[in-house]
Specification:
This protein has 391 residues and is of the alpha/beta class. It folds into three domains: 200 residues, P-loop containing nucleotide triphosphate hydrolases (Rossmann fold, 3-Layer(aba) Sandwich), CATH 3.40.50; 70 residues, Orthogonal Bundle (Helicase, Ruva Protein, domain 3); 76 residues, Arc Repressor Mutant, subunit A (Orthogonal Bundle). It is built from 18 helices and ten strands. α3 runs parallel beside α5 and α6 runs parallel beside α9. It is globular, with a radius of gyration of 24 Å.
């Protein structure tokens, strides 16, 4: 029997038949773009935000010219503007909107000398920042509206700060504010900045202020609704060899807790592997429980959640780790307990901001009636296994 695997994808952007549409989120972002507003789109890694905007860029609303790229590796102001110029060129070319005028404009910046007998091109030092703003001025007369979807923008801000200093990182944020705020630019150019780490915390650490980004309209990617989660599970299982009855589907979703597509897919993939090994198509509750336990041992599925806290928030990582470990061990943690931990780490002045701007904003925990809980039971149980609280 040819085994047909579920329609899951957990390691890269979901595209084509792998993409489960989140039209409710798409519509919210398109609404802001129609109002000439740039958007900060926040969600933890690997929960679907990149798939959403990749689909939007490939299926743009009428009147928009779009381009999506992951820009996480950029570490200088010059490189940021060089990359965005290239993205604008690519997007215009794809829609047949550049050609002659863009080439003419680009030559005006790259021609080194013009003489009677020769033209030298390509050796001139280019100020890509100035070039970018000049390009935006040219776009005003071209009857186009360009949208750039820039994935992992907070990483870029941090990279620039580490390589070129906080002054240049603040300059980049000022430039983004100008681009997104001034009417002469935003009528023909807007951005969707994606992030999976707390941009607010990074900006405050670099500049001491948050007004550098308060011009952006923030959208968060929520878990699936009850109805969406059931449709998503059917979407994953359609045509697959693995057979799951209605009662077991409900058990799987209950096991996952909050309906985050990434965790649903992880569990389905693990269940499928068990059935392949046992050479039978019918899934049982025993298999689901076995798959759940096996997932907790696969650190590569979860360790990024721990690693990025130490990478981006190293100076307060021990405090954050302690909060999460106690929350996992007890299944919840109160405001008072978090404050007591903060006092021990001498963080009593900023403790609540750290919790809200990092652990809540980045999708680790959520607050309900002065208590905090893990968003994902899977992440909670993995964290507890990785960081057990000893008496």
């Amino acid at each position: 029997m040819k085994w047909i695997k579920p329609n899951t994808i957990t390691g890269s952007v979901a595209q084509g038949k792998k993409y489960f549409r989140r039209k409710d989120i798409e519509d919210k972002i398109w609404y802001e773009l129609l109002q000439n507003n740039s958007v900060l789109f926040l969600a933890p890694r690997r929960v679907g935000k990149s798939s959403i905007v990749s689909f939007m860029a490939e299926n743009a609303n009428e009147g928009f010219i779009c381009k999506y790229e992951v820009i996480q590796s950029i570490d200088s102001v010059q490189e940021f503007f060089k990359r965005t110029i290239k993205m604008i060129d690519d997007s215009l070319s794809a829609y047949g909107k550049s050609k002659e005028w863009f080439l003419t404009w680009w030559k005006s910046w790259t021609i080194k000398t013009i003489g009677k007998d020769k033209v030298e091109i390509g050796d001139k030092d280019i100020d890509y920042r100035s070039t970018f703003f000049d390009l935006l001025d040219h776009l005003k007369n071209k009857d186009v509206k360009v949208v750039l979807f820039l994935d992992e923008f907070p990483d870029v801000v941090l990279n620039v700060s580490n390589k070129e200093g906080e002054k240049n990182a603040a300059l980049l944020l000022d430039d983004v504010r100008t681009i997104c705020h001034e009417k002469k630019f935003k009528e023909t150019f807007v951005m969707v900045l994606l992030g999976s780490v707390g941009l607010t915390h990074i900006v405050k650490r670099i500049t001491g202020r948050i007004d550098k980004i308060n011009h952006l309209h923030t959208e968060h990617l929520p878990p699936l609704t009850n109805i969406q989660s059931r449709s998503f599970l059917d979407f994953l299982l359609e045509g697959a060899t693995m057979q799951v009855n209605m009662e077991l589907k409900e058990y799987i979703l209950k096991k996952i807790g909050n309906y985050i597509p990434y965790y649903i897919q992880l569990l389905i993939e693990e269940c499928d592997e068990i059935l392949i090994e046992e050479e039978r198509p019918i899934l049982t509750k025993k298999n689901v429980n076995q798959a759940y336990k096996q997932l907790l041992k696969k650190n590569e599925k979860f360790e990024d959640w721990d690693n990025r806290l130490s990478k981006y928030f190293g100076e307060i990582y021990p405090f954050l780790k302690k909060v999460l470990s106690k929350c996992a061990g007890q299944n919840k943690i109160s405001l008072q307990e978090i404050f007591d931990i903060a006092v021990k780490y001498e963080l009593e002045l900023q403790w609540k901001a750290h919790i809200d701007d990092i652990l809540v904003a980045d999708g680790y925990i959520f607050e309900d009636k002065s208590n905090f809980y893990f968003v994902s039971p899977l992440l909670r149980d993995w964290w507890q296994a990785r960081n057990p609280q000893m008496n």
